[in-house]
Amino acid sequence: MSITTHVLDTARGKPADGVPVVLEIRDGDGAWFEVGRGTTDHDGRLRTLVPSGIALEPAVYRLTFDTAAYYAGQGRDGFFHEVPVSFVVRDPTQHYHVPLLLSPFTYSTYRGS
């Protein structure tokens, strides 16, 4: 169905707008291939990672959040240059929402709804 994300800057207590995100799929040999990319909006959300006409398949996917670019745009420094989050899509008819809670020296993620 779809893969979406939402990034919250917990240090600022606000959505993290302007975070570049890449979605990739891993093939049987372990190589990663880009499926889609985008940037979080003013609400920290990215709903268009999977381009229209592309169907998800059961596989391992990875979201990579470019936190260095985000912090540079904020005029701040962060410890983590990027945050890669890999996860399994077993049922491609489901919606997969993968939020990221971010601060300069820590991050957390979970499967949302």
How would you sum up this structure, described in words?
This protein has 113 residues and is mainly beta. The chain has a single domain, classed as Transthyretin/hydroxyisourate hydrolase domain (Immunoglobulin-like). It is built from 1 helix and 10 strands; from the N terminus they run E-E-E-E-E-E-H-E-E-E-E. It has one helix at residues 67-74; strands spanning 2-9, 14-15, 20-26, 32-39, 45-46, 59-65, 83-89, 95-97, 100-103, 106-109. The strands form 2 sheets. Strands 1, 2, 5, 8, 9 and 10 form a 6-stranded mixed beta sheet that branches. Strands 4-3-6-7 form a 4-stranded antiparallel beta sheet. The model has no long low-confidence stretch (mean pLDDT 95).
Question: What's this entry about, in short?
Answer:
By secondary structure, this protein is mainly β. It has one helix at residues 67-74, and strands spanning 2-9, 14-15, 20-26, 32-39, 45-46, 59-65, 83-89, 95-97, 100-103, 106-109.
Structural topology:
Elements: E1 2-9, E2 14-15, E3 20-26, E4 32-39, E5 45-46, E6 59-65, H1 67-74, E7 83-89, E8 95-97, E9 100-103, E10 106-109
Q: Considering the protein shown, what is the CATH homologous superfamily?
A: Transthyretin/hydroxyisourate hydrolase domain
Cα separation of the termini: 13 Å
Summed up, the helix count is 1
* CATH architecture assignment: Sandwich
Order of helices and strands: EEEEEEHEEEE
Task: Let me know the largest β-sheet.
Answer: 6 strands, mixed
How many domains, in number, for the residues? 1
Rg calculated over all Cα atoms: 14 Å
Percentage of residues in DSSP E strands: over 45%
